[in-house]
């Protein structure tokens, strides 16, 4: 019986990236990566759909590509809440057994005050779907000159979390600054429904992750590998470098998130 290092990787994609060539951005290779790193399953989005005017074709392709690997790769389709028929995307996600849907407000030019975000939050919550957000795909220093989209803001996260008491949000690609700005601007009840992967959080020597574990709390974090844009080994290494002085319960309650622990999210 395989002992998983992490049961769920919530931040994975397949497909092409418009600004540079990616090695092995396909489902079969992702499965091999997960097996090599002893990760149980991944929630997988369609990478190119973040820039598509209509994400429907990419969602159809995503479902088809993941079907042969349904025991390991779970679909996380893209929804555009300002596009006609967007609630149909949520209904199909439920039928397909998707745990979440992904929305990219910055790529779509959706401001934090837009009424479409609370509408999405309420509709997703009513269907038991987690909403996934991505702060950035690449660091500002390495972005292509034509990639002018700014990072996701704390205001976008807050408006989704506050729209419905049932909504659950996972934010990928955030650093310490955004996590702290958002977390401390939410009520304790709202904080309990907002989760962060630590793929972009610094380890030693800055020790941002350790600081956040001690202050924000380990239960707020989940694992995200950020494949194929980044190596899965990077967040694994950051986790392994956490101080051994952290209580053992801390290391199992949130950071080593399990399928059972995710049940309160999905």
Compact description:
The chain has 266 residues and is α/β, with parallel strands linked by helices. 34% of the residues lie in helices and 14% in strands.
Question: Could you characterize the architecture of this molecule?
Answer:
- The chain contains 11 helices and 8 strands.
- It has 266 residues and is an alpha/beta fold.
- The protein has one domain: Alpha-Beta Barrel (TIM Barrel), CATH 3.20.20.140.
- The chain is globular.
- It starts with 5 loop residues before the first strand and ends in an 11-residue tail after the last helix.
- The model is unreliable at 249-266 (pLDDT under 50).
What features would you highlight for this structure?
34% helix; five-stranded parallel beta sheet; 11 helices; TIM Barrel; alpha/beta
The proportion of residues forming helix, as a percent range, comes to 25-40%
Neighbour order of strands in the largest sheet: 4-5-6-7-8
- How is the biggest beta sheet arranged? 5 strands, parallel
Radius of gyration: 17 Å
Q: What is the CATH domain class? A: Alpha Beta
CATH superfamily: Metal-dependent hydrolases
Q: From the helix content, strand content and strand pairing, which structural class follows?
A: alpha/beta
Write the layout of secondary structure elements.
Elements: E1 6-14, H1 27-36, E2 39-46, H2 56-66, E3 73-75, H3 86-95, E4 100-102, H4 105-108, H5 116-126, E5 130-134, H6 154-161, E6 169-172, H7 176-183, H8 188-191, E7 194-197, H9 208-215, E8 221-222, H10 233-240, H11 248-255
């Amino acid at each position: 019986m395989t002992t998983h290092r992490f049961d769920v990787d919530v931040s994975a994609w397949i497909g092409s990236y418009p600004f540079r060539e990616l090695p092995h951005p396909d489902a079969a290779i992702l499965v091999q990566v997960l097996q090599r790193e002893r990760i149980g399953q991944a929630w997988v989005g369609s990478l190119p759909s973040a820039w598509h005017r209509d994400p429907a074709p990419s969602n159809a392709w995503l479902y088809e590509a993941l079907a042969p690997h349904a025991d390991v790769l779970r679909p996380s389709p893209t929804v555009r809440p300002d596009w006609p028929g967007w609630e149909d995307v949520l209904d199909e996600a439920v039928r397909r057994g998707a745990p979440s849907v992904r929305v990219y407000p910055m790529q779509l030019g959706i401001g934090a005050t837009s009424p479409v975000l609370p509408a999405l939050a309420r509709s997703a919550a009513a269907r038991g779907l987690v909403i996934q957000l991505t702060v950035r795909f690449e660091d500002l220093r390495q972005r292509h000159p034509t990639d002018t989209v700014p990072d996701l803001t704390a205001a976008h996260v807050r408006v989704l979390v506050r729209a419905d008491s049932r909504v659950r949000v996972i934010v990928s690609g955030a650093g310490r600054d955004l996590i702290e700005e958002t977390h401390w601007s939410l009520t304790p009840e709202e904080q309990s429904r907002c989760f962060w992967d630590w793929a972009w959080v610094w380890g030693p020597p800055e020790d941002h992750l350790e600081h956040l574990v001690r202050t924000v709390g380990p239960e707020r974090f989940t694992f995200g590998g950020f494949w194929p844009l980044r190596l899965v080994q990077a967040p694994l290494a950051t986790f392994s470098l956490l101080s051994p002085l952290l209580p053992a319960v801390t290391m199992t309650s949130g950071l080593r998130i399990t399928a059972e622990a995710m049940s309160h999210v999905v």
